[in-house]
Amino acid sequence: MKIRFHLRVLCAVLLLNAAPLFAADSGEPAAAALPAAQQQVHYDPATDRLTLDVRDMSLTQLLARISAQTGVEILIDPALERPVTVAMQDQPLEAGLTTLTREYNTVMIHDQRDVPGKGSQTLLTTIKLLPRGQTNTALLRPALSPEAEAVMRASGRDPAGTPGNAGGDARVSARRAARLEKMTPEQRAKIEQIETDKARRKAQMQADRAEQKAKRQKRQVEDINRQLAKAQARMDTDPEFYQQRIQALTERLGRIQNGTSSPPQ
Fold this sequence. Notes:
This protein is an alpha+beta fold.
């Protein structure tokens, strides 16, 4: 009887943990989720185009990554959160976002912005996503939280995209500037505080590393000086050998003092 009971418990656990055989929406066999490294969310600022290849990714996470790369503020009703599977290749940004959000009540807001090198342009700056048939925006939350944006900005990871692409970078920066302008003073203050705190921690880490390097260098110099003193004291026993030894130690000492010495293996 005990064996049967344990077998029943084991079977129940296995069934609860088993992946569903069919997708909830379509009745088709469910595909396994892609590893995180293979989930592709890429915005090309040079062409203002979007490429997606994701499977069973959180909708909010997907929108946050799009927001981070494009600069578009994306507000979402938490009731819409679900895993999504979507693939699109090199689509114009606005067309791609329209396709991605066509199942929801979607509001797209455009602003006239000055883009360095491009002049005045009408840019998509905000998207609001609500369940179909609903218009109440009170529950909307940013997919990319102010905290996450602050950490990204303080880390120097500007979501403008490809380095050296001034036109694309400027367009993304203009969208991000529009988003910051629409934030409440409290939200902007929170971003500034997070940026300040992270910059302070970064500076402290750099100072700690510099101090550790200086201590390591001091220990190396002291060790080499001890070896030099021993070599000079034994010079009479084997002048040729100890002359070479002193020369090698002196060269190594110079490299350490100049900061060009590799750390000991």
